[in-house]
Design goal:
globular; 7-stranded mixed β-sheet; alpha/beta; Aspartate Aminotransferase, domain 2; 2 domains; binds glutamine
């Protein structure tokens, strides 16, 4: 007799774990799971070291260290000209995924519908399901941009939440002012909560500005906006992020947060509070990653892969239909095991993957030498 009934019958191991493992086992260049392969700033390590040596090794306050909350409120005001209250509208989380999980846990009731735009980051739908919500999947347009009409058409009286993501993982596209204005219109006069996943906030290229939900007062008043330190400061292993929301939403968020995490590690919070005092530390990020995108993209153009447009994030999607007819998961496994380069197939990001889509995602948050070596291998195919 089985001890349990699974709550997530359709969920296995994440594609990120599968592909990273395959990369390690086969000695492949790992452009799959999104994480930098270069060292973080020594200053940050020194700041953590200082904090530990100064005795900051016990629990931080549940919502976060006051000086980090203040530093983030200042950063948000500087970038988006909007003031959040550090006491009631911001919480430090154990990464973006935990922020998303907790926001859903705190607000989605059984039977509530949550609109998810596929391809969607893989944690969204299972988390909704776990709390009895009903994921309603719509698709990005074929250009990998949001199809506002499709999203609008999915709204019903049972819609509790809309999840958006910009810059987009895995697509690498961004939402622009006109897209956000459509979101404002479709949510007006509803009680739908917006969950805006903006963890790649600083990875927006070609001089474009990040169109944050924060910038739109009608969205700000109904939104959880999720951010990540890992993506900005190359510290994905620290698992640290933060979430902004108006007081009414944040009160509910913290009720859940206090019982599944309580608080996030203290020395890192001290270090980040100090590090954020120098805006250059995040202002230099777009140019840094744009150079990597350009390097990888120009290499990719010498291969049989056809790159899609990458406007933001550290992911470059490429069409491999000139190389192979294999479905994408099989292609990604073949590429890692036989050709020595690991990427992420796109189909796991869909409820119903488009049948003949032949797309793979490569992460370019890598040293130039890693990118060059990968291109060399891809050119040889
Ligand atoms: N965000 C990372 C990516 O998209 C993966 C993080 C994880 O493995 N959970 O590749």
């Amino acid at each position: 007799m089985s001890l349990l009934t699974t709550k997530l019958p359709h969920v296995g191991t994440t594609i990120f774990s599968i592909m990273s493992k395959l990369a390690v086992e086969n000695g492949a260049i790992n452009l799959s799971q999104g994480f930098p392969d270069f060292p973080i700033d020594g200053k940050l390590i020194e700041l953590v070291d200082n904090a530990m040596n100064a005795g900051h090794n016990q629990y931080a306050p549940m919502p976060g260290l006051p000086k980090l909350l203040d530093a983030l409120v200042d950063k948000v005001e500087r970038l988006y000209k909007t003031k959040y209250d550090p006491a009631s509208e911001i919480t430090i989380t154990a990464g973006g995924t935990q922020a998303i999980f907790t926001a859903i846990a705190a607000t989605v009731h059984p039977g509530d519908e949550v609109i998810i735009v596929d391809p969607a980051y893989d944690c969204y739908a299972p988390t909704v399901t776990l709390f009895g919500g009903v994921p309603i999947h719509v698709r990005l347009g074929s250009d990998m941009k949001i199809d506002a009409d499709a999203v609008q058409a999915a709204i019903t009286p049972r819609t509790r939440m809309l999840m958006i993501n910009t810059p987009h993982n895995p697509a690498g596209t961004i939402l622009r002012d006109a897209d956000m204005k459509r979101v404002v219109e479709m949510l007006r006069d509803t009680s739908i909560i917006l969950l805006s996943d903006e963890v790649y906030e600083h990875l927006v290229f070609d001089g474009e500005l990040h169109a944050s939900a924060i910038n739109y007062p009608e969205l700000r008043e109904r939104a959880f906006v999720v951010f990540s330190f890992g993506k900005v400061f190359h510290t994905t292993g620290w698992k640290m992020g933060y979430v902004l929301a108006p007081k009414e939403l944040m009160t509910e968020f913290r009720k859940v947060h206090q019982f599944n995490v309580f608080s996030v590690n203290t020395p890192m919070q001290h270090a980040l509070a100090e590090y954020l005092k120098e805006p250059l530390h995040y202002e230099q990020v777009p140019a840094f990653y744009q150079a990597k995108r350009d390097r990888f993209l120009s290499g990719l153009r010498r291969t049989e892969f056809k790159p899609l447009s990458c406007e933001g994030s550290y992911f470059q999607v490429a069409d491999y239909s000139a190389i192979s007819d294999l479905p994408d998961v099989e292609f990604a496994k073949w590429l890692a095991t036989e050709k020595g380069v690991a990427g992420i197939p796109l189909s796991p990001f869909y409820r119903d993957p488009p049948k003949d889509q032949r797309l793979i995602r490569f992460c370019f948050a890598k040293q130039d030498a890693t990118l060059d070596a990968a291109i060399e291998k891809l050119c040889a195919i």
